[in-house]
Amino acid sequence: MVKVQELLENRIVSLLENPDYAGHPLSEGLAELFERYCEQTRQIERIAHISDRYQEAERDRHIDTTTRYQRQLRQIAKVMRISDRYQHMLRDMNERLYWISSHDELTGLPNRRQMQAHLKRELQQLAERGGQFCVALADLDHFKAINDTYGHDIGDKALAAIANCLSEHIRGYDLCGRWGGEEFLLIFPHSDTRAAEAILARLHEVVGALVSHQLPEQIVLSVSFGLSACHKGDEALDQILKRVDGALYQAKREGRKRTVVV
Ligand SMILES: Nc1nc2c(ncn2[C@@H]2O[C@H](COP(=O)(O)OP(=O)(O)OP(=O)(O)O)[C@@H](O)[C@H]2O)c(=O)[nH]1
């Protein structure tokens, strides 16, 4: 039925648009008739729509309260599911943002900002409870030569391998982060320099023996460390870091692959 109606409408439209019948005495009458027909069709559709809505409302009026209540419950449950999903998404995004702002992308270690926060916390604890902790700065030896010989990509892989090796071989409560470039900072809470030196001696060994299938076999890595202890009432953070940096510089000057304690 709809199809027949559509065909007829199309036929009238094409007749009215046909230039051969332009000015034909019946054209004007047909156009007027067609315009009225279209208007009436639009009105019928509007009435049908209103009637559908009315019937729907009537149907709803007659369903019992329990059914209506259950329907509303289902709608609320749906909204809650959407809200839950949205909140999970936000939480994941927040966690990811936090991770990005506090970690180094290449090595996955805490970044400089995070390590500075750890240092401040350690100093705060010293001020409150006394005791001591140690800080070490590590720097890869002859790293520029690795970059120059094998390329930056291999250099990056060497950095990631060293980061992994250092963080795997410290104690569970020690901290290791990327300080920048080819430098790593290590914090040894509640430790004197003897205890920290023993750990660094182990790190010299494991770094020297490091084998990674990601790196060319002929690469042999080593690191130099500057180490210092912090006590209650010691100087401010930047002074401590300056001291450790000086020790590292001395380790480099004295031939690398060693630890200098100040
Ligand atoms: N591949 C790579 N290289 C880096 C990155 N950050 C710093 N470097 C490189 O590390 C090298 C450090 O070079 P230098 O400061 O001369 O130190 P070195 O060659 O290790 O020499 P010593 O420290 O004296 O033993 C430079 O070539 C930097 O470009 C990084 O994220 N990826």
Task: Describe the protein.
- The chain is α+β, with helices and mostly antiparallel strands and 262 residues long.
- It folds into 2 domains: 2-62; 112-261, 2-Layer Sandwich (Alpha-Beta Plaits), CATH 3.30.70.270.
- The protein is 64% helix and 13% strand.
- It is built from 8 helices and 5 strands; from the N terminus they run H-H-H-H-E-H-H-E-E-H-E-H-E.
- Strands 2-3-1-4-5 form a 5-stranded mixed sheet, with helices on both faces.
- Helix 5 crosses helix 6 (152-168).
- It starts with a helix and ends with a strand.
- The model has no long low-confidence stretch (mean pLDDT 92).
- The structure holds guanosine-5'-triphosphate.
- Guanosine-5'-triphosphate binds next to strand 1, helix 5 and helix 6.
